[in-house]
Amino acid sequence: MKSSGWLFVACALCIAGAAAGQSIDVNLLSKEKIQANCELNTYVGAEDCVGRLIPTLNYRAAYYAADNATYIVRVTYDALNNPAARPSSFGSGFLVDRDRGFVITAKHVLVGNRDWTSLLQSTTNQFANLDTAIEDTLSRTARIELQTSDGMYPMPTRLVAIDRDSDLALLQITNLNAIQLSNFKALFQAIPLVPEGKGCSDLKVIAIGFQEAGAGVMERRRPDEFTKAECLLQAGTYYIGMLKHRIPLLTTGLKFTAGNSGGPVLNEQFQVVGVVSGAKTNLGDSINNYFVPVSAVRSFLNRFR
Question: Which end of the chain is more exposed for a tag (fewer CB within 10 A), N or C?
Answer without folding.
Answer: C
